From TrEMBL:
Keywords (A to Z) from UniProt: Metal-binding, Prenyltransferase, Repeat, Transferase, Zinc
Required cofactor(s): Zn(2+)
EC number(s) stated in the UniProt entry for this protein: 2.5.1.60
Reactions accelerated catalytically: geranylgeranyl diphosphate + L-cysteinyl-[protein] = S-geranylgeranyl-L-cysteinyl-[protein] + diphosphate
Species this protein is from: Caenorhabditis tropicalis
The keyword Zinc is annotated on this UniProt entry: yes
Cofactor, how bound (note): Binds 1 zinc ion per subunit.
GO molecular function annotations of the record: metal ion binding; Rab geranylgeranyltransferase activity
Domain of life: Eukaryota
Record text on subunit structure and interactions: Heterodimer of an alpha and a beta subunit.
Gene3D superfamilies to which the protein is assigned, alphabetical: 1.50.10.20
Designated name of the protein: Geranylgeranyl transferase type-2 subunit beta
Matching Pfam families: Prenyltrans
Length: 334
């Protein structure tokens, strides 16, 4: 391949056409989200059983951040989430499914959003999380043994939100995270793995919860994150990949935690996020013109909230929940 060809390859991007949305279509998004709550016999609801509790958190959080949570059936949702609890103390994605850290954190986040955390057994949840910590400080997501820095954030966030962070071995957890810190400033899933923006969010968030952000170079990490911005204004997760609206959250929230939001071109980024909205059905897609879904919807909305928008609740960059519902559980960062 010629040098020119290589250069083109490195600049993978999308084109923003003129007819794409240029402002936040807030009220359309609540209709989009509520259809997932209403249509329980529909294809999407049935096919999503393996990730339902995560899906419930994405939907409830999107409704909370757009100040429309009161339109949801709070009691029914809380009862459903509680019914996903297993005897090991963790939560699965749906009743009868095995526990997993991803769903356990989402269950806790959802209960907080609906002001129902007192209905959960905090001690048994923390015991469940503690058992998944390995000697080297890393965490498995469940009994299958997969290790990933995502699970470090899930563990520290869950125990912090339940007011029992000290049940975990924080020193070894931090040591493990630092072994996943790469010389380019990013973090990977495990020591030696490629830097990825999703993993940077998990590691930076976990270090913030641990009170150990001083262990890394904020500027070096923020520079790696800033390089994720493409000409369209959208952000990718790693070099030579297409932008995706969810990285607007993973990257921007990491920069917010590091106190480096100004490293990015904010107006170009907003333009890309607005363009990912579906102006007929509501919801956000990964990229302009693709099919909208609740995952990209919540992270698109959360990213816009970080820029400051009066029609949205202010979001907390570590926990991806409104500051209003977190109250005193927020972490003082500076
Ligand atoms: C929100 C508090 C809170 C916690 C969530 C599970 C988790 C903790 C974070 C996930 C972070 C992460 C790894 C995000 C990336 C998700 C994603 C779109 C992965 C796709 O990866 P590839 O390799 O896509 O298919 P690319 O974009 O690299 O081509």
């Amino acid at each position: 391949m010629s040098m020119a060809g290589l250069f083109e390859f490195a600049r993978k991007d999308v084109n923003l056409q003129e007819k794409l949305p240029t402002k936040l279509l807030r009220d359309l998004h609540s209709n989009f989200i509520l259809q997932y709550e209403r249509d329980k016999n529909g294809y999407h609801y049935i096919m999503a059983e393996h990730l339902r509790v995560s899906g419930i958190y994405w939907c409830a959080n999107a409704m909370d951040l757009t100040k429309q949570l009161s339109q949801m059936s709070a009691d029914e949702i809380v009862q459903y989430v509680l019914s996903c609890r297993n005897s090991d103390g963790g939560y699965g994605p749906a009743p009868g499914h095995d526990s997993h850290l991803l769903h356990t954190l989402c269950a806790v986040q959802t209960l907080i959003i609906f002001d129902s955390l007192q209905k959960a057994d905090s001690n048994s949840i923390c015991d469940y999380v503690k058992k998944l910590q390995n000697e080297d400080g890393s965490f498995c997501g469940d009994l299958s043994g997969e290790v990933d820095t995502r699970f470090t954030l899930c563990s520290l966030a869950t125990c912090h939100l339940l007011g029992n962070l000290s049940t975990l071995n924080i020193d070894t957890a931090v040591n493990f995270l630092l072994r996943c810190y790469n010389s380019d400033g990013g973090f990977g899933t495990r020591p030696g793995s490629e830097s990825h923006a999703g993993q940077v969010y998990c590691c930076v968030g976990a270090l913030a919860i641990a009170g150990r952000l001083d262990s890394i170079s904020r500027d070096r990490t923020a520079e790696w994150l800033a390089f994720r911005q493409c000409d369209s204004g959208g952000l990718n997760g790693r070099p030579e990949k297409l932008p995706d609206v969810c990285y607007s959250w993973w990257v921007l929230a990491s920069l917010a935690i590091l106190g480096r939001l100004d490293f990015i071109d904010q107006s170009a980024m907003k333009k890309f996020i607005y363009a990912c909205q579906d102006d007929e059905t509501g919801g956000f897609a990964d990229r302009p013109g693709d099919c909208a879904d609740p995952f990209h919807t919540v992270f698109g909305i959360a990213a816009l909230s970080l820029f400051g928008d009066d029609s949205l609740e202010q979001v907390d960059p570590i926990f991806c929940m409104s500051k209003k519902c977190l109250g005193s559980k927020q972490i003082e960062m500076f």
